[in-house]
Amino acid sequence: MHLLLILVIVPILFISQTKSDIKIGKCPKVRPIFVDQNNLGGKWFEIKRADSMGEPGKFCNFVDLTFEYDESGMARLQVNQTAYTGRQFRSTLIYAEQPDTTLGQLHFDVGKWAPLVNTKDPNHFFIYVDDNFSVSYSCQQVGPMRMELAFISSRERFPENLDENMQRLEHVLKSEDVGLKLDFVDQTKCPSIEENTMREEIREVENDEERSHEMNNRLLALLQNRLDRVYS
After folding, report:
1. CA angle at 137 for the pair 61 and 67, rounded to the nearest 5°
2. Can you give the pTM of this predicted structure?
3. In the chain, how many domains are there?
4. Is 232 inside any structural domain?
5. Assign residue 9 a region: left if phi > 0, alpha if psi is -120 to 50, beta otherwise?
6. 180 forms bridges with which residues in the sheet?
7. 14 falls within a domain
8. In sequence order, which residues have a C-beta less than 8 Å from that of residue 112 and are 6 or more positions away?
9. Are the C-beta atoms of residues 18 and 38 closer than 8 Å to each other?
């Protein structure tokens, strides 16, 4: 069973290139709000995020969000994630479907990398958005385990009344039964992205064997540690 869970979860986390928390139990039933291009589209700077894997690279993170609509009215969200590695900006372009355009619940398809995972249900939710801040939460069920992410983002790199707003917005997550610990993202001393940018899509990330080997080793160690705690 240990090996099965590792084989299912590792490809998902490697492809996503994000930091997540893995726990036993079902995903909570969060309440998504309405989002569209008008209130969600554009640039958001990550202020706090869940980070249980301890990976480096929590510097100058931001995302550009763009909604695309087809003739039937179905929406697709383009997510351009960017972070600073210490030498250059590195971006990853991913997409999510919005099955119901009246709700901020999205479906990131991880089934192509992990066929045993149920990918029919939404797995990313916007639970708060105003003119200055947004709160989003991801949860993917993998057998008896759940894989979680959470983000608090701002339109400004350095928002006003930071402590007060973070306390208020973290309470939003707790009110939805999301108990993740969020850490601050370092937004200081960020260079100009126009002068130092590297764009890469997921299909290019898949071909990076050195990064794949390093990520898999890190994830295997993390997963084995979590599973040992559960079954000991």
Report:
1. 70
2. 0.75
3. 1
4. no
5. alpha
6. none
7. no
8. none
9. no
CA nearest to 53, candidates 229, 226, 212 = 226
3-state SS of the chain is CHHHHHHHHHHHHHHHCCCCEEEECCCCCCCCCCCCHHHHCEEEEEEEEECCCCCCCCECCEEEEEEEECCCCCEEEEEEEEEECCCCEEEEEEEEEECCCCCCEEECCCCCCCCCCCCCCCCEEEEEECCCEEEEEEEEEECCEEEEEEEEEECCCCCCCHHHHHHHHHHHHHHCCCCCCEEECECCCCCCCCCCEEEEEHHHHHCCHHHHHHHHHHHHHHHHHHHHHHHC
Residue 183 domain boundaries? 20-207
Two tokens, residue 116: 């045993």
Yes or no: say if 151 and 173 are a contact pair by the CB < 8 Å rule.
no
Q: Which of 45, 71, 69 is nearest to 59 (CA)?
A: 45
Q: What is the pLDDT of residue 232?
A: 57
Q: 102: exposed, middle or buried (C-beta count within 10 Å: 0-12, 13-18, 19+)?
A: exposed
Collect all residues with Cβ–Cβ distance below 8 Å to 220 and sequence separation of at least 6. Answer: 6, 10
Q: 18 exposed, middle or buried (CB, 10 Å; 0-12, 13-18, 19+)? A: buried
User: What are the average pLDDT values for consecutive 10-residue runs of the chain, which has 232 residues?
Assistant: 45 43 84 90 94 60 91 84 85 87 86 62 93 94 84 96 96 95 91 60 40 49 56 56
Beta bridge partners of 206: none
CATH number of 42's domain: 2.40.128.20
Contact assessment for residue 184 and residue 47, using Cβ atoms and an 8 Å cutoff: yes
Q: How far apart are the first and last CA of the chain?
A: 14
